[in-house]
UniProtKB/TrEMBL annotation:
It is found in: Cell membrane. Keywords: Antibiotic resistance, Capsule biogenesis/degradation, Cell membrane, Membrane, Sugar transport, Transmembrane, Transmembrane helix, Transport. Belongs to the ABC-2 integral membrane protein family. It comes from Luteipulveratus flavus. This is Transport permease protein.
Length: 275
């Protein structure tokens, strides 16, 4: 059944493209700065976290400052994609309820189009990170570890794929549940705030190994741990690969996708009656 539904979604990919373009146009339709906001927002937040964790808590000194900013941004930019996708997919069906009821579009498309639109915004924000990487390259060799810089960039491919799969899978669960239980969206926001600090974004797993070694075995089942490791290997010059985290990220991400497709199919009739 899931295979048939996926084939139906693929057959309507041109409609999906139209929906994504519409989302992006609407987002910046009344904005003077438009696309520039995708650069300003992560840069501002990155500098705030750098000041708090890098300066106040003495995480960096001198020449390490740029490296730490890159490390932060390589975690924060993917997190923004994940966070924005989950928040908006949770309301995807209810927010578009008139079109959901009146069109024959595969209803999973309303979730997938949010993830893709947010993913494009994420890709458009990467020049902020590239700027700092270029500055570092003038003073340090990012390829000084076991892998060259070009080889590191390969890690971006599985990171992009797995984060897309994870966001779609979770969104397919969030969207119908929220359409049926409005309070669920508030629970999602609370869980996302907690998940931010249970994901190595403003700290590293090496710090967890040092301070709370028992916690690694639990945290590694958070798929974002492995996904963030992939992004940092590819974007920040992180040396070394957390193989077990990569494996669990793959397993859990595709498990979410399978679970999401099943939940969506089961709840779809009830959602259509409710909205």
């Amino acid at each position: 059944m899931e295979t048939t539904r996926l084939a139906g979604i693929w057959s309507q990919r041109k409609v999906l493209d139209t929906l994504v373009r519409r989302d992006l146009r609407v987002r910046y339709a009344r904005s003077w700065l438009g696309y520039v906001w995708t650069l300003i927002d992560p840069l501002a937040m990155g500098l705030v976290y750098f000041f708090v964790f890098g300066v106040l808590f003495g995480r960096t000194t001198g020449s390490d400052d740029l490296v730490f900013i890159v490390y932060l941004l390589a975690g924060m930019l993917p997190w923004n994609w994940f966070n924005n996708s989950i928040n908006e997919t949770a309301r995807a069906l209810y927010a578009e309820r008139l079109l959901v009821r009146s069109t024959n579009i595969a209803r999973e498309m309303w979730v997938i189009r949010v993830v893709i639109a947010k993913g494009i915004e994420f890709l458009l924000s990467l020049p902020v990170l590239v700027l700092f990487v270029v500055l570092i390259l003038f003073g340090a060799d990012l390829g000084s570890g076991n892998l060259s810089l070009n080889e590191r960039l390969i890690a971006i491919v599985p990171a992009l794929l797995l984060q897309f799969v994870l966001c779609v899978g979770m969104g397919l669960v969030m969207a119908p549940v929220t359409a049926l239980v409005d309070d669920f969206v508030r629970i999602v926001r609370i869980v996302l705030r907690m998940l931010f600090y249970f994901t190595p974004i403003v700290y590293s797993m090496e710090l967890v190994d040092d301070k709370l070694p028992w916690a690694r075995d639990l945290m590694v089942w958070n798929p974002l741990v492995g996904i963030m490791d992939m992004w940092r290997v590819g974007l920040s010059g992180k040396v070394g690969v957390d193989g077990w985290a990569w494996i669990t990220a793959t397993i859990v991400s595709f498990a979410w996708l399978a679970f999401g497709l099943w939940v969506f199919r089961k709840l779809e009739p009830a959602v259509l009656k409710e909205i």
